[in-house]
Design a protein that fits this description.
three-stranded antiparallel beta sheet, 10 helices, Jelly Rolls, globular
Length: 329
């Protein structure tokens, strides 16, 4: 039997969250030119909880990506998270495993208004060389088999109560405690939360051997990822990309799709759209000039991809920016 989203653990989580400060979603200063989201995590314990208040028209509209692992939990209202070509529909209390390497963003939808907990950490919090191999299991929810389906623990899941209890303890530890014991407590409750996710996704999570293979694939593809961040506006053939990574064309295409969930062309277009948003926000360049600068074949090609990613044309996006600036002045 599924629990109600008004369960006591979720009410308790909201009660604890109500004592904390949720900030407007303003992260543009943390993004580099290619949309990479920089977050300064402590070297000794690379873990962070960020509290955002998402409201329609008042969020940073940028496609971002990052190496750190991330969980996202809306508390009050529905929320849509775009990850590559996939859009995850979230309800209050849902726990989303963010597909962090794919360009992603919260979709600015009419009526959006919810507090959100974002948990960020590096895998070193859970597994480092010399740790027992069983510690790999805590990373498995971040590497899934299922295509076109998010890793989402629904608030209606029988396991959601346990997840919400762990989240409540995490908030208390992270924001109320100090010193060494704070970090130890955070890690303990993070592992409890991850264990809930392991149980929820046991049928779709990768096995340890597959996880190691995925990590090996990411290392092999690093040359093309590095090239794309610097040269996203340039064209590159599959042959050239494969050669850059020391693979055959056939192997490269298979490995890239398996590791990133999309083709090389789609990946480059996601990076270009992230840069397009920045140019629309920060420059007066025309849409035609932006499309050329980003390497699209023509303006209509650019507009089609932009609309597919954000649900509106570049012109509509810029017009909404101008309207908001006018209202704020």
């Amino acid at each position: 039997m599924h629990q109600s989203v008004d369960s006591e653990p979720l009410k308790k989580l909201r009660e604890i969250a109500g004592k904390l400060n949720f900030q407007s979603h303003r992260i543009a200063h943390q993004l580099d030119a290619k949309g990479r989201h920089e977050l300064d995590l402590p070297a000794a314990f690379p873990f962070s909880i960020t509290l955002f208040a998402f409201q329609a028209g008042r969020i940073t509209q940028r496609l971002t990506w990052h190496e750190r692992l991330e969980l996202l939990i809306p508390l009050d209202g529905p929320l849509r998270e775009r990850m590559g070509d996939l859009v995850a529909e979230l309800n209050p209390g849902d726990v989303l495993v963010v597909d962090h390497l794919k360009p992603h963003q919260v979709v600015d939808t009419p009526g959006l208004k919810t507090r959100v907990i974002v948990i960020s950490f590096l895998q070193e919090c859970v597994f480092t060389p010399g740790c027992p191999l069983t510690d790999y299991a805590f990373l498995l929810p971040f590497f899934k088999k299922a295509e076109n389906a998010p890793q989402l623990l629904s608030a209606a899941s029988p396991r959601a109560n346990e997840a919400h209890k762990a989240l409540a303890h995490l908030l208390e530890c992270y924001f109320d405690q100090d010193g060494f014991h704070r970090e130890a407590s955070c890690k303990a409750w993070l592992l409890v939360l991850l264990n809930v996710l392991i149980q929820e996704f046991r049928d779709s999570a990768l096995g340890r051997a597959q996880l190691l293979r995925r990590q090996e694939q990411a290392a092999r593809l690093k040359p093309i990822f590095d090239w794309a961040r610097k040269n996203y506006a340039d064209r590159i053939s599959l042959d050239a990309a494969a050669s850059l990574c020391g693979m055959s064309k056939a192997v490269f295409g298979r490995v890239f799709k398996e590791a990133s969930g999309m083709t090389l062309g789609s990946y480059l277009n996601h990076i270009r759209i992230a840069q397009a948003i920045k140019l629309l926000e920060e420059t007066n360049e025309s849409i035609a000039e932006i499309s050329i600068q980003l390497g699209f074949s023509d303006q209509s090609h650019f507009c089609r991809h932009f609309h597919r990613s954000l649900g509106r044309s570049p012109g509509q996006y810029r017009a909404s920016l101008m309207k908001k600036r006018g209202e704020q002045s």
